[in-house]
């Protein structure tokens, strides 16, 4: 093909062309992890992703494309994450405002009194599953209830990594089975099935996977969980929270507002920001001492002190020096600026993935997989490898969800496999595995929001690991594999 106004010939990518950017990605990310360890997410991995995107661009240019085409693809990549950018900034603002207003401290205060350390991990997964199913968002669930549950775990001397794994397991169960979830609706639309039929099909992998996760979290808490902190330490932390804040159910009103807006299907970023602003205003009236101490400027009148406190909490987060390390670590968080490293990560990953997708490099890798998948089991394995691979390579769950649904739809139809099989498998492979990759938009969000490195919580995301594996096992065994009416008639 020839670009209008140009005599340059555009060549289709070879297998080597498709492989070179992936090798660059592996080498650069592996090198950054080897050199910087867990600190690699504070900049080195972002640099690796940007350099990998440049390698992909050089391959595209070598094949005859023009730089303005690469630029246009990059612009479309940035457009695709506009929603995620605003959600991330809103979550950062919300965490800062909820700490200022006492919403998160109140959740922790009541949680410390109610939740047993023995069953804490299992209870965390169940609570997040119920909340996410009610509001249809894994991100909102993790960024609100999840933050509080990780904070309670720190106070109880429990593992934040296991707790984060439980939060994510529950959040993604609810996200998958909720008709309010945008990824659930999108998956059903891409596969051409009714959303309720899609949810019914997903339940055959989601519920057993969550049941297994629930049992594992229960066993960890019962037999292998770390010993809880001394009762006196917990009492001192509760006392500190009570001394710093006016603890009351009134402080939970921002959470109630967020739940109402989410159930009424308000855009996530608007719902989060509305809750953050409401929390800030509430803090001015209910947390006078906290607001004054946070601003630390006696020369300001009460009105300007309140505005200064809310503005600063939204922008740079809330901070406090209570003298108790666990309390300070829990409360000194949030702000839009806390999400900037995460945004840098997402921009690099999605730009790299979009260049690979739009210029045919990913398709060049997938086509041989389709031809080699002779059996149903191998076809299911190919879909899983594609979905999870795109989460690693493209860094975005939507690419990992949309592309396999498009590429494999015709092949599923040709083999007489009902589209519900593909919709379930695409969700298990694309959506569920996304938080397991540190530079994926979902992995970066969960790490930044929960304050736990992806590599630390990954081994404990039992649901996110078991659900896609069950889908692949079903493909090889034939269990719950639905056929089209024509295929059934031919049989």
Tell me what the structure shows.
It is a multi-pass membrane protein. GO terms for molecular function: antiporter activity. The chain crosses the membrane at residues 20-38, 44-65, 77-98, 118-135, 147-171, 207-224, 244-263, 270-288, 339-359, 379-400, 455-476. The protein is mainly α and 491 residues long. The protein has one domain. It is built from 25 helices and no strands. The protein has helices spanning 15-36, 44-62, 67-80, 82-101, 103-114, 120-135, 138-156, 160-177, 182-191, 195-224, 231-244, 253-263, 268-286, 288-295, 302-316, 325-331, 340-358, 361-372, 376-393, 397-414, 419-431, 441-450, 454-457, 462-477, 485-490. The protein is globular.
Q: For the report, how would you describe the main beta sheet?
A: none
Structural class: mainly alpha
Order of helices and strands: HHHHHHHHHHHHHHHHHHHHHHHHH
Residue-averaged pLDDT: 88
The number of distinct helices, counting runs of at least 4 residues, comes to 25
Rg is 24 Å
Integer count of domains: 1
Low-confidence blocks of residues: 1-5
Strand content: under 5%
Q: What is the molecular shape?
A: globular
Number of separate strands: 0
Termini Cα gap: 44 Å
- The level of helicity is over 70%
Draw up the topology in text.
Blueprint lengths: L14 H22 L7 H19 L4 H14 L1 H20 L1 H12 L5 H16 L2 H19 L3 H18 L4 H10 L3 H30 L6 H14 L8 H11 L4 H19 L1 H8 L6 H15 L8 H7 L8 H19 L2 H12 L3 H18 L3 H18 L4 H13 L9 H10 L3 H4 L4 H16 L7 H6 L1
Helix pairs in contact: 1-2, 1-18, 2-17, 3-17, 4-13, 4-15, 5-7, 5-11, 6-7, 6-8, 6-10, 7-8, 7-22, 8-10, 9-10, 9-20, 9-21, 10-21, 10-24, 12-13, 13-15, 14-15, 17-22, 18-19, 19-20, 19-21, 19-24, 20-21, 21-24
